[in-house]
Amino acid sequence: MNKVAKIGHNFPPTPFDEAQDAITSLKEEAGHWLDGAEVTSQNEADAIAKLLDMARKAKKQADDARKEEAKPFDDGKKAVQAKFKPLIEECDRIADVCKAANLPWLKKLDEQRRKEEEAAKAKAAEEFRKAQEALSAARATDLKSREEAEQQMKVAQDAEREAKKAAQQKASAKGGARAMSLRTVYRHEIVNPTEFARWCWSNEREALLDCLNSIAKRRTDMKFRDMPGVVIHEDKVPV
Questions:
Q1: Which of 1, 115, 116, 185 is most buried, with most CB under 10 Å away?
Q2: Which ranges of the chain does DSSP label H, i.e. alpha helix?
C-alpha cells in the first residue's frame, strides 16, 4: 500500500505506525470473512486459515516493535536495578544480623516481662479477693469497717491498673526512629494430612477443588490418562 504523507509530515513512519496500519488493514479484511456465517467450502476455510496466519505475523510484527521501543527503558531499568542491588542487599544483610544479634536479649526481656505481668495479675486478683472479703465482712452500721473495705477496693483497682500497664509493656531496644521489638508469628505443620484434607473438604472446599484441578491438569498435560475419580475428555481445537 502506498502511503500519502500528511502536509507538514517529514518523518518516516515508525514501527508502531507500520504495525498499526498492518493490523487496521487486517481487521478490515477479516470483517469480510468473519461475519458469523458458517464456513461451507474449502476455499472459505483456506481463506480464514490465511487470515489466521496474517494475524499471527501482524502480532509478531507489533510485539517485535514493542520490544524494540521498550528496550532502552528495559535496559536502563536493569542497569539501575543492578547498580543499587548490592547496596540494598548489604543493608538487608546488616539488618538481618542485627536482628539475630539482639534476638536472645529481646527474648530474655520478653520472658522477664511475662513474669512481671503474671505477678501483677496475681497481685491484682489477690487484692480484689481481700476487698471482696472486707466488703462481705463489713457491717452496714460499722463506718470504720466500711471505710477499710472501700480502701481495700481502691488498692485492688490500683493493682489492676498496674497489671494492665505491665501487659502493655514490650521487650524492645531503642536506638533510632523505630524501636526493635519482638513480633509473634505463626507457622503451620501438617501432622495428619488425611485429617486435614477432610477438614478442608468441609471448610475450604473451593480451595481444595482448585488444588485438585491443578494436580489433575498437570498430570493430564504429562500424558497421564488413568486417575481415579477423573474423566479425561478428548477435544479437537484449531491450531
A1: 116
A2: 15-33, 42-137, 143-168, 193-203, 205-221
Taking the chain, what is the end-to-end CA distance rounded to the nearest angstrom?
A: 30
- This prediction has a pTM of 0.65
Bridge partner list, 172: 181
Angle, CA of 169, 171 and 173, to the nearest 5°: 125
Please, what is the average pLDDT of the chain? 91
* Measured distance CA(174)–CA(188) in Å, rounded: 31
d(CA 84, CA 77): 11
Q: Which residues contact 65 (CB under 8 A, 6 or more apart)?
A: 15, 16, 18, 19
**Tens digit of each residue's pLDDT (9 = 90 or more) over 153-203:** 999 999 999 999 988 888 899 888 888 999 999 999 999 999 999 999 999
> Which residues have C-beta within 8 Å of that of residue 51, sequence separation ≥ 6?
26, 29, 30, 33, 34
The string of DSSP letters for 179-211 reads -EE---------S-HHHHHHHHHHH-HHHHHHH
Distance between CA atoms of 17 and 5, rounded to whole angstroms? 12
Cell 509493656 locates to 169
Within its chain, how far is the Cα of 86 from the centroid? 25
